[in-house]
Specification:
single chain, 56 residues, mainly alpha, 2 helices, YjbJ_sf, CsbD family protein
Length: 56
């Protein structure tokens, strides 16, 4: 897994956490759901890259 890929996946996960917290604080369910989705995508990307690393 390239360093850029690792950073990108971590950034997406952190961005999602921030969106989720802001959505909770402002009672914005749409933003909260978008944050949860961003976290899931970031974690999925990381897991896929980990599998690639394991296969090497």
């Amino acid at each position: 897994m390239g360093l850029d890929d690792k950073i990108g996946a971590a950034a997406q996960d952190l961005k999602g956490k921030a969106k989720e917290k802001i959505g909770e604080a402002t009672d914005n369910h749409s933003l909260q759901a978008e944050g949860v989705k961003d976290q899931a995508v970031g974690q999925t990307k990381k897991a896929a890259e980990d599998v690639k690393d394991d296969l090497k």
